[in-house]
Amino acid sequence: MPELPEVETIRRQLEPRLVGRRITGVEVYDPLLTAPTASEEFADELTGQLITCVDRRGKYLLVGLESGATLALHLRMTGRLHWRAGSPAPGEERFLRAVLVCDDGSTVTFADVRRFGRAWVMPAAVSQREFWAQRLGVDALSDAFTARGLAESLRGRRVAVKTAVLNQRLLAGVGNIYADEALFAARVHPLRPAGSLTTDECRVLRGAIRARLEVAIAAGGASIDTYRDALGQRGRMQDLLQVHLHEGDPCPRCGAIIVKSVVGQRGTYWCPRCQPDTTGSAVAVARRRPRSSRPAGVI
Ligand SMILES: [Zn+2]
């Protein structure tokens, strides 16, 4: 699933290619992409508009228009944006859901195997700042993401720190891959209650999150399954992962065997030696099974 580094890679590629271009046509092949807005209405709102900026909030890509409206896109599981200098050849793009055409003949296609991705136009009257402030925490790549802010957002929380880091309302942009990688880099057990982290651990974790995201952006993102960048290229970050997807492999730091567990329904990887449970509280979280998995009648 594309996370912050993948969406940021796409943003950086699209920005110089789209800003200053005028949208001359939009074709939507899958009404679910723009639902509940009708495809025709979505296309009408975009056609004729000049693109003024390409921004990102968390995992959302935001294309600014001269009218003040914003085209918002979320790739979800398998969404893929591909820029081309011309039109894609017939049949070149499988699972095609929409095409945006610019005044220089360039195109951006939105393809999506699983069809969870979404696109919608936010009216000019909607304050971007207020809209996102109500839905997303601080962006993990912004200057506003500080150690103090992280400590405040984790304080008092009893959920596993991995789960807290994945909560987009607390911290926007970090998903399953980079949560595992950052917790390993920070030597924090993923099942520690979030509120048990010390101020110093929060400082280290904040630095680790930022560092791993920056490495991933420099590597063009991680192509673990379907992700490709906006030019159709695979990222390189999948080859640089230290623990994520490495169950049974030796830890790159200490040689202990990397283990995997399921935390909040997400596969979670860590090194039992580098990331010890220093508080003794993580085990209780690890052993607690979700209610739905308990046999009927068992409390
Ligand atoms: Zn280790």
Distance from first to last alpha carbon: 35 Å
Overall number of strands: 12
Widest sheet, order of strands: 1-6-7-5
Give the count of structural domains: 2
Largest sheet: number of strands, sense, barrel closure: 4 strands, antiparallel
What name does the CATH topology of the largest domain carry? Helicase, Ruva Protein, domain 3
Spans of at least 5 consecutive residues with low confidence: 291-299
> Which ligands, by name, code or SMILES, are bound?
zinc ion
Helix run count = 8
Q: Tell me which CATH architecture of the largest domain applies here.
A: Orthogonal Bundle
Just give the CATH class of the largest domain.
Mainly Alpha
Element order, helices and strands?
HEHEEEEEEEHEHHEHHEEH
Helix content: 25-40%
User: What overall geometry do the principal axes of the alpha carbons give?
Assistant: globular
Into which percentage range does the β-strand content fall? 15-25%
Instruction: Classify the secondary structure makeup into a structural class.
Output: alpha+beta
Please provide a brief summary of the model.
It contains 8 helices and 12 strands. By secondary structure, it is α+β, with helices and mostly antiparallel strands. The strands form 4 sheets. Strands 1-6-7-5 form a 4-stranded antiparallel beta sheet. Strands 2-3-4-8 form a 4-stranded antiparallel beta sheet, with helices on one face. Strands 9-10 form a two-stranded parallel sheet.
